[in-house]
Sequence to fold (1629 residues):
Amino acid sequence: MWFCELHSCEPKFARVWIPDAEEVWKSAELTKNYKHGDSTLHLTLEDGLDIEHKLDDKTKNLPHLRNPDILVGENDLTALSYLHEPAVLHNLKVRFTDSKLIYTYCGIVLVAINPYENLPIYGSDIINAYSGQNMGDMDPHIFAVAEEAYKQMARDERNQSIIVSGESGAGKTVSAKYAMRYFATVSGAATEANVEEKVLASNPIMEAIGNAKTTRNDNSSRFGKYIEIGFDKRYRIIGANMRTYLLEKSRVVFQADEERNYHIFYQLCASSHLPEFKNLKLGKTRTNTLHWMVGLLILIVLFCVYLCSGINELNQKGLFQVLAAILHLGNVEIKDRDSDSSIIPPNNRHLTVFCELMGVTYQDMSHWLCHKKLKTAQETYIKPIPRLQASNARDALAKHIYAKVFNWIVDHVNKSLRATVKQHSFIGVLDIYGFETFEINSFEQFCINYANEKLQQQFNMEQFGDKQCLFQHYGAPCHKAKVITNVLCVQMPKGSDDSWAQKLYNTHLKTCSLFEKPRMSNKAFIIQHFADKVQYQCDGFLEKNKDTVNEEQINVLKASKLDLLVELFQDGEKVTSPSGTAPGGRTRLSVKPKEIRPGASSKEHKKTVGCQFRNSLAMLMETLNATTPHYVRCIKPNDLKFPFTFDPKRAVQQLRACGVLETIRISAAGFPSRWTYQEFFSRYRVLMKQKDVLSDRRLTCRNVLEKLVQDQDKYQFGKTKIFFRAGQVAYLEKLRADKLRKACVRIQKTIRCWLVRKKYLRKKHAAITIQRYTRGHQARCLVKYMRQTLAAITIQKFQRMCVQRKLYLQKQAAALVMQTILRAYMARQKYQGLLRNHKAVFIQKHVRGWLARQRYKRSLRAIVYLQCCIRRMKAKKELKTLKIEARSVEHFKKLNVGMENKIMQLQRKIDDMFPTRAELVFFLLSLPLSLLPSVLSPPHLHLLPLSEKMTRALAEETQQLESDLNEERSRYQNLLTEHLRLEERYDDLKEEITLSVRQELDSENKKLKHDLTAMRQSLLGNAGAGAGAPGSPPYKVLMDQLNSSCEELEVRKEEVLILRSQLVSQKESTLIPHPPFYLAFFLFPFFPLCLFVRSPTADFHRLNEDGELWLVYEGLKETNRLLEGQMQQQRRSYDNEVEVLRGELQSVKEENNRQQQLLAQNLQLPPEARIEASLQHEITRLTNENLDLMEQLEKQDKTIRKLKKQLKVFSKKIGEMGAGQVDTISPGQMVEETVRPVNIPRREKDFQGMLEYKKEDELKLVKNLILELKPRGVAVNLIPGLPAYILFMCLRHADYVNDDQKVRTLLTSTINSIKKILKKRGDDFETVSFWLSNTCRFLHCLKQYSGDESFMKHNTPKQNDHCLSNFDLAEYRQVLSDLAIQIYQQLIKCMENILQPMIVSGMLEHETIQGVSGVKPTGLRKRTSSIADEGTYTLETILRQLSAFHSTMCQHGTDPELIKQVVKQQFYIIGAVTLNNLLLRKDMCSWSKGMQIRYNVSQLEEWLRDKSLMLCGAKETLEPLIQAAQLLQVKKKTDEDAEAICSMCNSLSTSQIVKVLNLYTPVNEFEERVSVTFIRTIQTRLRDRCETPQLLMDTKIIYPVTFPFNPSSLALETIQIPGSLNLAFLTRV
Fold:
């Protein structure tokens, strides 16, 4: 495309490319108009330098034009308007250095530039992002090529090939490895052995034997390989096969300067010091940089053991012997005997070692290295050969042996990778050398370039075929372009070493324009390849092509004692293809072997290298032609291996060599730019007038193009697209930019006028406003002055009046105070005299009585103590009798009855102790100080040590009883049932006693309140007549009560001590841990077996034939564990009781101390205050007692309600079952015996919310209600959660009849059926949502009617009556909760599968705001159109789908909290998928696209508001996407902008921010690219962030789900079962 094509536009200031010696091409701008015939151009470089560029005198070709900035950085080179070498080079450089993008499309070719740095773009998240995507919908990547190959294989049922080419060090092997990794990840392996791992594991040994150091690459592959990855019918990897091409055998004997031999030889030498390699007799290498190869060699040995199972230890040893022998053979020195013969000196050390390692005779090998055999028709002659020929024969033998070893290893690698099942299809990955040209090019470069010519020819045919199909598909006329085909280059030359060059000159020099002869040489020729001219040297061509090996030397090796060497040279080996395909390996294409003639196998080694390579290449081309090829061209950016450093010279050289520029030339010959009519209309709508816009978009575009572009050859109209020649898009872009620039100027003019006028109006309005406010301020000041004057006069009047009134009130108050003080003083003097007399008499009376009672109590305590000792002695004597009697049931009953009586007495006396103690304290308050020492040392304090002694004695007795319990444990099993009944009877009696105690306390409290009221009335009535004096009625009543309380306190304390000791012993004897009754049933079947085992004459083999002994043993272990657990539980309960008693004792001590402190305080008070304090203390005590009684009353009310409920249930049972079945009720369900059953009238229609069914109908119930139920009909026509309610009502009836088997089978069948229906219809959102709702409702019903108070508080009284009574289903609640979690996760996956195809199209590609997003021209890799066509997804589609999800869940009755969690997960998926695609698509990172994304997010937020879901956390999940959209729109130039970005994008990682900035692409003229300096500033500021380096968001994350309790207000008895459910066998109860 030349500059003259745009001459009619505006040639001045046009930008062009001019050649440069350093940078290859430089950008310049035209400063003077060009006129036809000018020989020079006036240009200005980018650095500001003005130059004159001279045109070629012969061609007069003008420089290449630059593409518009909008097209710079395109991911497809064919999308460029101007397709030429500088445009391609500049586009690759911008993407590689500025955007850090290493992949670019070039039509059907993927260009990959080696970054020399590990990039985070090959993880599993990237693989998942590219999986299932169209090739044009994502940014270029090796994964996109692999996905396209995999998709076409599955869709078209056609084998695929990926051709990876490039020079050494360009990254071919790595690209092939990533492609195979992708296949292994997306397809999975059909067998346990991972084929991808095996293929990758073969890399070390293949690199060791096939890679070497060259001047361009330290690990250069010196052979080509084609790996076929086999797939089965389900497209899973089942095996692989490797073919190799053109191994560089000459490197074994010759290496150029700064190059090395194959790695394996250096590894052997570096490992020579190891014991395993001592016998190889190798020396150390001269370089010290290969020590790492020792570890690699060990790795190779392990690989041989692991991968090549056919290589045993002997073959491994032989393999290293052969390789070491090749090194020794190269060191064999051959000397001249005469001019026609040569000789090897005797006892040559290297030849001796060679013969030892190879297992051949020294004489034979030394003889045939210096001689050859000549055969004639009659005789055979042995002829000596000169030294040069002998040396060549030695080198040929070494190369031949190495080639045999290489092929042998490849064969064994293929055996390990061979598929075990039938192969259905395959994808081949070709890793082959690229075009090569050096200073000296020989036979190897000729073969390599020959292979590249064949591949380029195949590529040209493929590309032109695709273009013709594309033009035919869109209805555009197709014109054939000129394609250069090197017919000469694809035909292998023939001839002898003497005349071959001359024959070439005579044959091709005059007939072929692609063949040339060098001027200064007669032994070289030049071929014009597709990439460049290459000069080949003829020296050594014939020898390298023939690769002749002496047949007698081969016979000597065949006679070797080394088995591996014999296997390498055996005559009976199968005829295999030259490609190295493993025998038996399945390939789609195979070469039929010819019949082997006698003696043909002995001449197999005489086949020329050219012939072998041509055959293998022909087979490869046949394979590639039978597959769909995909091309990857690898580029080496620089020779110094610097990361992201672009060397234009090296890049251009490789672009020419790998055919990328040839691809561009072919694309430029046609119509490289393609637009759909809608895209063209959207982009260039600004160039049209309103009258030009028609309803028919195609006709509109045709009319506009005819006006804008006069030459109709520059474009062609197809069915759905418009095809443009190169440069036309740039022309249209220039017209569009000019039109937009004019529109901007007009808009600026109008806006500036509007701003100035608005500024004038603001000033005018401000002046008027100031005047108005000034006048108003003056008027307000005048009014304020007048008001202040009036207020001052009023204040003076009232102030004077207040002063006079205050003086009068002060005098009046002083007189009243003086009168009050005087009268009070006289009254207090009189009262104190009366009070002293009364207290003296009162104290004398009570002290005398108290001393008499103390003497009596001490005597009584001594007598009681003696009685305790005597009774203890008698108790010990009767211990044995009690043990015998303990076995009888009657004694056990009596013992329990006694314990119950004692417990009842103890409870009553403990309750009476606290008011008695309070009365004692009140008594002590009234005593004088002289009597305090005798009072504060009560005799009951000495009983504390006695209590501790009794506790220790009881502990010893407890230990004795525990030992007796272990002896008598087996005999207690018969008493377990009776024991449980007595315990339940004891609980009933205890509750009855508690009730009676409460009634007594209530009556006593009422009596005390009555007495207190009487005292208060008496005191009030006699207040004036000395009511508080001694001898008055209130005083006497109070003293009588105090005396009786003190006496009762002493008696109760003694009784409490005695009963407490008896209670402890009684509890220990009655609460002995017995084995639970179910153990008896568990062990009963095994008792006969245990007895049989104890018999010494038992036949143990017969007994244990079914494992009964193990079962018995396990049963006994379970029994021991249960007994130990019960023992520990009883021990803990005993410790808890001791701690409670200690706490009570401590509280008594604290109360005593507090009372003493109060007493001391009260004694310091005057007598009048003491009486008042005593009365206040009594009131406080009575108030506390009243509160305690009220608390006990509430507890008793709860117990009464519970008993009434049980009474109702059992009354109904009695009425149904009859009086004869009352005795069968278990003790745990009995109520008190003293309560008479209440006859409750029963109505016929009073349903209890239960459904009864027969056990044989359970399968029918599950089938009709779960398996065959259609959710849509239930959700629309019936109440939400109806199946859950029905199942729970059936479960309630099973609990009501106490049928544990029925409960268990119903729950198990329900859970399994739900799992089954979800497994069958798990991809149906409606089904999954329906059963998620019903599972949660069933779980809530189990909680609501479980009987737990935390759940019952939300119920109505009627619902509380329906609670489960017999079974605790907490374990099944956990199982249902786990099932609900599984259903929730399945719902999320189902929802994700529905939303996944809509997200990218609706959130990114669809143009929600019409006209904002600019459409860019696309290349061959067509992206999904951003214009909404019929069938494409839009944002409205996503919103409708979200509404459908929401309405479905609401119809099914899903909990609102659960709906919020589902919506939050939906929005996370939308945000994550959108952000991931944004990070992988350069065309989406623009300012306008950021606006579109923010608008789409606002629509999603509006949807949340409409559904009242703004507080569910869904908006927060979109925060990374919102910040990414803001990042696309904010300014990105200065340091302040960088700081704002860092503070704004707190939800994005550093890698995501940098990725967005790198991908940011201007779509319109006013946008600018982000500079590299700005991106580095961002990275520096975000360096300290602690975050994961992951680029993409994990779309597989599912937030943890919770199921908050949501009780139902629906009454179970009101639920009606519709007939459509076919549940007529259910009966309402």
Observations:
- The first strand starts at residue 15 and ends at 20.
- The two ends are 92 Å apart (CA to CA).
- The mean pLDDT is 77.
